[in-house]
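Fold description:
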Amino acid sequence: QVQLVESGGGSVEAGGSLKLSCVASGLVFSRCGMNWFRQAPGGEREWLSNLNPDGTTLYADDVKGRFTNYRDDIKNTLYLEMKSLKWEDTALYYCKVYMHWGEGIQVTVSS
């Protein structure tokens, strides 16, 4: 059974940084493309970044240059390092692999 568990969220002032983690189990992590999404209050769930097993990474324009998506295949963990956070980054953040989602972790940025 695939399980994804996010952690590392919290509250931060605008301009600050946070690092999210997503620990995966029940799959061969090193062979999986992994994604981050987020959903702001009252908004649609939006894609942020994809990281393939070969290390290639894609980012949404909103986060390019500020967010870094990387993985540790030994720890079965995906990371999202977020810098220069803005009020608009306030959302519930999710990791996703295939059709499996984590439960989400809240990030709140105060202006």
About this structure: The chain has a mean pLDDT of 96. The chain has no helices and eleven strands.
